[in-house]
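HUMAN:
Could you generate one sequence with tokenized structure?
ASSISTANT:
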Amino acid sequence: MRLKTTDLCDAYSDSLQIVEPVFGDFGGITTFSGGISTIKTFEDNTLVREAVEKPGEGRVLVVDAGGSMRCAMFGDNLAELAVKNGWSGIVMYGCIRDSEDIGEMEVGLKALGTHPLKSIKANFGQRDITVSFCGATFNPGHYLYADLDGIVVSEKELSL
């Protein structure tokens, strides 16, 4: 069952974090949820590739890319890996590329925008740490729910 963020806000507003509405939808799936896995990096997508190459087990990859608008941190090759390896979705606090192709894929993807330039590959960043952006804190193992109305974060898995 896909949970709507509006219904979750109605039922759990006192215990949810609501992410500021700055993200666009780019994946072929617009409603997604799952346990959170995180990456913190800047203009280097090496750890993003490493993450989506491994089993996602229905989780959501949250990438704090520092809000950079100078390059893309995610493209069609990584989206194919995410689909193949069972990631529910990606929230990219930065840019993506190959948006038309990704829009045909069975993965949720929210990002700040698109950019044609690829990122560097310097193996910079941290994995599965607490990250904060857009008025919310994302902890590994907590839960994220996303749809066309927005993104909400909960300490526990929710049901209606």
Remarks:
- Residues 24 and 113 are 7 Å apart (CA to CA).
- The two ends are 10 Å apart (CA to CA).
- The chain has one domain: 5-154.
- The mean pLDDT is 97.
